[in-house]
Queue: 3 jobs
Job 1
Amino acid sequence: IEYLVNDASIKRPEDGIPTFDELLVKRRHLLKHRPHTQNVAFEKNIQDIENNPFPTPSGKIEIFSKRLYEMKNSEIPALSHYVPAIEGPEDTLTDKFPLQLITWKGRNRANSTQFANPWLQEVQRQELWINPLDAEDRNIKQGDKVKVYNDRGITLVPVKLTQRIMPGVVALQAGAWWQPDKQGIDQGGCANVLTSSRSTAMAHGNAHQTLLVEVAKA
């Protein structure tokens, strides 16, 4: 806190921020900024669009995008509207694989780095989060080893029953190392064996957060 206050005092002289020692005596400091309610978004553009155009082909705010229209990609329509996700909750594939799988970044490693470190594995083990309602439908109990699968692959992992995830959704921490057995079935809870190679329409990035799976007791 001392470092932050003193750093602000040096870098923002226009605000007259006291040093940490001064603040210990003064106890408070009033920042006199322009009220947020008086700020107008894109004020310069609106007042003088000729000299302050937007970075679009027309130089204006575009509700309809000619560039997107010419791409003719149904995932990114030229006029904004709701687009159902591929392998999302409305996909017909839910008849076969009814659970939406998402991944998250854990607190014990950076992606896959240090996955095998036993001390960091003590911090947070690799496990599948599932809502108790979905677990009950599948006769799954806390701590059971489960099979998470779709048409692309299978991974085996312990399960964690928790109401912190909504029904219809399951989750795995990202970055688990692939640990195949003799049959090629992953034993380490690696979400990558379940993801598709589909890329996103505009950025051509990994579309790994939209995939459907089923879960069963191993």
Note: The mean pLDDT is 92.
Job 2
Amino acid sequence: GIGAGGMISVSQAIIGDIVPPRERGRYQGYFSSMYAVASVAGPVLGGYMTEYLSWRWVFLINLPLGLGAWWVARRNLRGLPIPQRKPVIDYLGTVLMIIGLTALLLGITEVGQGHSWRSSEVLGLFGCAVVVLALFVWHERRAREPLLPMHLFANRNALLCWCTIFFTSFQAISLIVLMPLRFQSVTGAGADSAALHLLPLAMGLPIGAYFAGRRTSITGRYKPQILTGAILMPISILGMAFSPPQATLLSGLFMLLSGIAGGMQFPTSLVGTQNSVEQRDIGVATSTTNLFRSLGGAVGVALMSALLLALLHDSSFAHLANSSLISEGHSGNVLLDGLNAAPGEAQNALRAELLVTFRHLLWVSTAVSLLGLAAAIAMPNNLLRGR
């Protein structure tokens, strides 16, 4: 995680160093296309490897990929700007941030796996996160070279871009997790078929990113692309809610649209952030954008999983299936184990109940995406710097 986070932030900061903002949309479009393809190709390949090879290959596949990335970086990253002074590294801020965010994400993950919000373990993690992150903010205000300069949060445009990318990642990553689960549980398909079900989303993300990147470079404005994606996202999620997984063409169309919506917002939000800060802050602004992107995905998966478990508790699924499974958490296993344990005649009733449950879940997801739309509407329509 540390290695991947470093590579993502530094590679984007390199683009910020050597490409003017007006041209940057094109390059960030390429970057977001690769990021989007990898984000969806990972689950697709993972489903196939788990089904036909072994779950261990989900980890082993990273060895040749890592060697390839090392070779490309060693061969091509030459002639980059070299700092003229030795920076002061904020070690204390780094430690406080890691502890605070780890506690926050662990607490959210525990909730997503079925633990109660009021359990001592979850409350302890959230309490630790609040205290440590408060200390982090206090320290950053006094540090000579802070890890995360607090003045960036006074920048309205950067803050709105971070909100946009948070909610976009919230939707995109939670859909990547929930849609295969919905397809498997409602249709009874295997992991390989569920992985293929993600392909329209995988195709839509790079299409949206490439189009938005090119359009941003031509017009010099990023808000129209962000706003278009933010409008398209709730419409596409609502369409998914009303199209059953068995309707492959219709469901795939709405997944394609949601991918295009997400792809249009990822590169443009980053370009907007980099354009709104000073050149010396581009590195930290880029890494903060990636932080909000990662937080959005983690929070989205955890909250949607927790909501799914809550909806299952309140539905007849808890009575038709083995209710003890639901109390144990792990929503993916709840559905599949509950369906497999049910007698043949009861399975159709369970699948119909699950279809309604996932529809309610997608309604909530649609409502959350409206927050991203509000941030996009409030964003100023600034012109990018440079030619």
Note: The radius of gyration is 22 Å.
Job 3
Amino acid sequence: MNEVVTEYPAPGVALVRMCAPERKNALTGDSARELLSALRAVDADPDVGSLILAGTPEAFCAGAHRDLLEAVGRGETQAADDITDVYELFEMMRTSRVPIIAAVRGAAVGAGLNLVLAADVRVVAENAYLRSMFVANSIHPGGAHLQMLDRLGGREAMTLMAVLDEPLSGVAFAGKGWAAEVLPDHEVENRAVALARRAGRAAGLARLIKASAAATVGIPSAEAAAYEGAHQRKTLAAKHT
């Protein structure tokens, strides 16, 4: 049975689902590679304008599997390769051409929280459980966890979640402004699909706008306006051809 399934709930919308509920979708080397392959396939499909990453009702993702982490600690070569593939997931998401929405139900801890942080938008269940959990497991964070927390909510987010290891419910996480919406559990995926639909109907434009946003971050406003203006003129011209 595949541990990652890609669904298409609306035109131009892909939903990539982690399906290993017996271990709360904890990542092994094999499941990380399967998930990476699915995400790359969607990213390479120009007809997809938005990607939703979801787990199962039991959990979004319980992080890297404990057996994998213990094998890394023992210095096993295969385990080192496997954890590298887990980390590659976050980099792939951070650089994805397609906008990514994390639909978070249940637990998202450790590497699972990294998947949430690497998404562009987060829709979380009220009863979701979000926690760094690296301190609880006596290991240092990985996968640019600290940087992603800082980008999401500054020094407070990084310190609260990574250093103090504070667990947050979906309500508390969204209350700090770290999620777009918080909803009852059964409404999360439907809302994520509803958000994704507009981008799905204009896949090329959605991808272009995301790329433009990345290109204009941190540059002078006049340069950003010129960059946007050039692309705006192209899209206006395209409407008349």
Note: The chain has a mean pLDDT of 96.
